[in-house]
Fold:
Amino acid sequence: MATIKDVAKAAEVSVATVSRVLNKTGYVHEDTRKRVETAIKELNYSPNEVARSLYKRGSKLIGLLLPDITNPFFPELARGVEDEVQKQGYRLLFGNSDENIDKELEYIHTFVQNHVAGIISATDQAGKLNYQHLKIPSVFLDRASDGEFSVYADGKEGGRIAAREIVQRGSRKITVLKGPVHVQPAQDRFQGALEVLGESNVDFHVMTTSSFSFQEAKQWAEELFTKYPEADGVIASNDITAAAVIHEASRLGKMIPEDVQIIGFDDIPLSSLLFPSLSTIRQPAYDMGREAAKLLLSQIANKPIESQHIKLPVTFIERNTTRKVDNNG
Amino acid sequence: MATIKDVAKAAEVSVATVSRVLNKTGYVHEDTRKRVETAIKELNYSPNEVARSLYKRGSKLIGLLLPDITNPFFPELARGVEDEVQKQGYRLLFGNSDENIDKELEYIHTFVQNHVAGIISATDQAGKLNYQHLKIPSVFLDRASDGEFSVYADGKEGGRIAAREIVQRGSRKITVLKGPVHVQPAQDRFQGALEVLGESNVDFHVMTTSSFSFQEAKQWAEELFTKYPEADGVIASNDITAAAVIHEASRLGKMIPEDVQIIGFDDIPLSSLLFPSLSTIRQPAYDMGREAAKLLLSQIANKPIESQHIKLPVTFIERNTTRKVDNNG
DNA sequence: ATTGTTTATGTAAACGGTTACATATAGTTT
DNA sequence: AAACTATATGTAACCGTTTACATAAACAAT
Structure:
């Protein structure tokens, strides 16, 4: 690999001059610039980011910490982040925390040691480890966080919408899946649904599901229909769980949506390929990722920031696990 | 952030001594070591990776390049890579190439500029841009690559298995979905299936699907059943496509597996939650990721390497989109 | 007592960039 | 002609580590 010294020698100038043409700073004569540029091309030189980061005390890297990329909600988020960050010349240092505080700390540490320019984190430990004293710009994704920058979807409203829609479409014995207690967005949805259901004239049950894993989703679906065989509506905590519920209901020979209506949450890409295709509350995952990246990059560039918090709207995607409602209704 | 100098001052030694205790190299008196260690703790010091990388000309970073993390096959791969790499003290610099050569080059460039210790790439451009002249240890994932290190699943055999199973279970008019031509593993599967189908006494058609996108999957599924309404067996190019086929078949009122059998490829986590749950050829994605990481890390550590190529076996996961075959059959 | 080895520590040069500062020439003003 | 300014370039310090080399004390061997 050629270094700036090699270029300087080839162009018969000092390294300072080369650095000047590289960064377009200070004065440099047109002729010299050309000589330098030629040398750069000839040597196929490109500056060493590590050296640059060392002097500048800051790199072109962004740390991205997700709970688990294997959960289908996160790839879209990650992609949103990547696309925006990449567009602005930054790259991603990526890790999964598994919602485990030690792993999270380990990654934060890595981020610091590698001089990342900023951090985007979608973890629940947020409060506990105080990103603020890190003095590194950060934004929290998929989690509202009071004193800090954050981008999230309106989970509570999502829960309300889900409840309203399912009630309006005729379910009277509804089971709502609560989702893991430590996952804030899941709790928001749950609260929203509860709020509406409480005000409605319907029976409902709550079932807690302690994780978002594929394995367990199946078991919960089974449990659901043994415990509440007469349920005619299910508000799932996310689309994976909803998929499991569709699966189990179909296995039991229930007609969807005639016998049971099901509403999911997230709108992961596969939702529309399920059969029946899943009606769900959509979180704009990709956009959330992008917005988070934009917000972070604005901070880094010291651009003016309109708001520390970006709450993205959530929408009801009507597909075929809910009944149609006539337009006059 | 405290630097090594601060520690040296606090412990009343030179930076060299601090560095010695940090790296456990050379001689250092027991008492001095203790003083240094105390100073490190007091100042909450931890070495700057950037400076270290600069001197060492190599970081603790691994570049990971995937086509698109949004395709459900890749998160598992990525996770396998991450877990292994992380275990051995390395971190991930991550990017999506979209199978686009410019993006790929851009990322390779980033990797080089950031002194990554190694690269894991799951792209098809491999040959074209010659990772070898990079002089950075690399392994190719999900792609066989002749002169280079690679980890992949036995796609051809997978195709054979799929064909054998579907024929054995009674399908006589089979449609095989070909998958994008530029995706090598998809072609391997296709070839394998073709090989067996050619030798069998069955009718079959080939339909090309030019991408793995969710959107288009649906359209192809529709096209499939309008073009070949009498098909009683479908070998899909991957599980997403298979999901779309299940969806469409169900929509048309076909019984699965009685009227049509469907076999997918990959065994993405959601496959078992589809209804009917999907019979598929499983690629051990997570293990592939881990193996790739192990292979790379062995190279980096100059450990002896048994083989440049690791071909992982593929297995038939029998679920409910294929008929049962009696054990005496 | 002299020499050689082992242990312990420090000094300074690297790694590859950026930039403050010094210097020099050319072109403008007065 | 003197003084000032704009342009052009170089020198060297710095970012925070690691390590080759130098130095010195302690101890052992002759």
